[in-house]
Amino acid sequence: MVKICCIGAGYVGGPTMAVIALKCPSVKVVVVDIAVARINAWNSDQLPIYEPGLDEIVKQCRGKNLFFSTEVEKHVREADIVFVSVNTPTKTRGLGAGKAADLTYWESAARMIADVAVSDKIVVEKSTVPVKTAEAIEKILTHNSKGINFQILSNPEFLAEGTAIQDLFNPDRVLIGGRETPEGQKAVQALKSVYAQWVPEARILTTNLWSAELSKLAANAFLAQRISSVNAMSALCEATGANVTQVSHAVGKDTRIGSKFLNASVGFGGSCFQKDILNLVYICECNGLHEVANYWKQVIKINDYQKSRFVNRVVSSMFNTVSGKKVAVLGFAFKKDTGDTRETPAIDVCKGLVGDKALLSIYDPQVTEEQVKRDLAMRKFDWDHPPHLQPNMGPTTATTDVTVCLDVYEATKEAHAVCILTEWDEFKSLDYKKIFDGMRKPAFVFDGRNVVDVDMLRDIGFIVYSIGKPLDPWLKDMPALA
Ligand code: NAI
């Protein structure tokens, strides 16, 4: 029986290993983590992450060929293949702070593997890492290896949160990079044979190590760039009377462009896009490619612009002040069907509104009050340095102008405005008449995800702003301050 151990029981490690266990009954899969609470949750009925379809798979495989454990060293020692799926956040201090990837967690995992291994192993980079990381990892492993043979593979993960199980079942591609030596290629084949249990061969791409590492950063940069491109257009649509939904539909019909990932919004979020682009920018700068670095940096600048443009629109529409006004925030997760709030645009929007002294009442079907408060008190880039790994990096300030509600109607009651910041399906079919009746007048809706039926809401009496859509006459008279 092949034994797989995955270090890191997070959004990638957990679902990916659950699917490998499901699809490969003859493989024993153990997911290990130093976060005791996270492992306890994986072993309970309340999994630590929300992902459609995940519960069923874990229930089916757990205790048979899928295990979650804090006995990191034991399971690494026993494994034939070790996936490393730890977090690789942006550095918050020192050389490259605010841009470079912080490989502290990766390096400590690699050193531990070298220390405890007593047999040959394939070590798989699952985390997103800077190109050439495998070389550094190889050095750590071989310098401490006691004659053990380690093969490093790069196998970046392309799943998207919210559709992780679907993406893992039916991936566009699986990418495996390895050394171009006979031993390297043997390791590539070994990992390929795991995925080949359910992924068609033609979709399993093999490359050299550096292409695999760079492809992940490139893919995220291209995806984020599409969002920033359509968001840049949304600002021009508002200025000209064009409708961004119609523009992106027309643009996306060109088969060279394609229709996916062209929705205008308040901005992209999630743990990866910003971090990976910053990392790409840093690598370009280190290689003297300043024009290339500046090109990609612009994708993040437009994203920041989009978030502040939204806040400015809210404030300017409401007579240039939200001080003391209740503003209901619907949705806090960075996208629908996940409870993940890392780098969610809601953080910057909420901080912007609180900065203008608004009183926020926040509702999200999957995000807890504790999480919201922690996020709003966190400093930039600290969000992906979990407290259990960085004991000195807890929240900095408590936020008192924020309440978290368990119900939309309670959140919107007596509010002056509603801001929709996540595209949860349930926000499409709320009783907006009831919401309107309970609100202060004039009642505003600022739709940062284009989920509401603008005409219907205007008929009810709302003043509606929807990103990139022709402006309400009221808003035309109150130009955004951006
Ligand atoms: P995460 O933060 O949810 O999980 C990482 C886990 O690793 C944490 O539970 C942490 O306690 C654990 N860990 C850290 N150091 C450890 C060590 N030395 N020993 C044992 N456990 C340790 O992170 P997530 O979202 O799963 O991301 C992991 C990697 O995958 C990152 O590099 C990310 O960029 C990449 N990625 C993430 C995607 C996503 O949608 N979240 C998609 C594709 C790639």
TrEMBL record:
Keywords: NAD, Oxidoreductase. One of its GO terms (molecular function) is NAD binding. The active site is at C272. Residues 328-454 form the UDP-glucose/GDP-mannose dehydrogenase C-terminal domain. NAD(+) binds at residues 8-13, 33, 38, 86-90, 127-128, 161, 272-275, 342. It catalyses: UDP-alpha-D-glucose + 2 NAD(+) + H2O = UDP-alpha-D-glucuronate + 2 NADH + 3 H(+). InterPro entries: 6-PGluconate_DH-like_C_sf (IPR008927), NAD(P)-bd_dom_sf (IPR036291), UDP-Glc/GDP-Man (IPR017476), UDP-Glc/GDP-Man_DH_C (IPR014027), UDP-Glc/GDP-Man_DH_C_sf (IPR036220), UDP-Glc/GDP-Man_DH_dimer (IPR014026), UDP-Glc/GDP-Man_DH_N (IPR001732), UDPglc_DH_euk (IPR028356). GO terms for biological process: glycosaminoglycan biosynthetic process; UDP-glucuronate biosynthetic process. Its EC number is 1.1.1.22. Coiled coil: none annotated. It comes from the Eukaryota. Pathway: Nucleotide-sugar biosynthesis; UDP-alpha-D-glucuronate biosynthesis; UDP-alpha-D-glucuronate from UDP-alpha-D-glucose: step 1/1. GO terms for cellular component: nucleus. SUPFAM superfamilies: 6-phosphogluconate dehydrogenase C-terminal domain-like, NAD(P)-binding Rossmann-fold domains, UDP-glucose/GDP-mannose dehydrogenase C-terminal domain. Belongs to the UDP-glucose/GDP-mannose dehydrogenase family. This is UDP-glucose 6-dehydrogenase. It comes from Spinacia oleracea.
